[in-house]
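W.,

You were right to be curious about this one. When I first looked at the sequence I had no strong expectations either way, so I just let the prediction run and decided to look at it fresh. Below is the sequence, 252 residues in total, followed by the output.
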Amino acid sequence: MSLGLLGTKVGMTQIYDGAGKIAPVTIIQLGPCPVLQVRTQQRDGYDAIQLGFGDKKREKATRPERGHVSSALESKRRRTRAAAGVELPPKPECEPQRHIREFRLEGPTEIKVGALLKADEVFAKVKKTVTASDGKQRDVEVYPDVDVIGTTKGRGFTGVVKRHNFGGLRGSHGVKKGNRQHGSIASNASNRGSGRPKKGIRMAGQYGHERVTVRNLTVVRIDPENNLMLVKGAIPGPNGGLVMVRPTNKRG
């Protein structure tokens, strides 16, 4: 996983590009995200950056949450480690954060604790060779494609028609109130008359509220003043839901 940012889904709209073509986009309030910790191979066994998003009121934050971001909060463990000569990790010296996530890195980074990461810095434009309408290839600067990770809307306990797109039973004579039923769940032919359902058979149950990654989305626009990113298409989750945005790992 490469470095990304945290944000919230604002909603969907549609905009026109420079060629006059309309595109459906999702607006994401992306960052700014303070760097809370930097994981290293020597200390933690892996390389990663821990980011926060959304300031939390201090009176509503717990003591561990406040001590995680500030060195002004004294504790017995901190005094003991300092007296023993243990080097204490730096603190970002910011407000307690409402959401905290880690992004795994492929190697060490020069980003320091306390840095404030913004969308136009993490997702800077890159050069890309495209084929124009006249058939000639040109080098243009575009934003890198991104993957958006979020939690889908929870729909509770649903039936097979809504959960698995079953067609239901026939609506003809003799089918009494069975239009949305799933039908038989056993297979006597394959189970030699045992009548036991097969493993993994699709039935009614919990639907939604699961982690989903939408890959390879095109970034249409970034507004650095308002910390907004516009991506083409839909992303998982309701309006106001937390999302993670990172450069795509899709190849080809």
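Here's what jumped out at me. The radius of gyration is 25 Å. And, maybe more interesting for your project: The longest strand covers residues 5-16.

Coffee later to discuss?

I.
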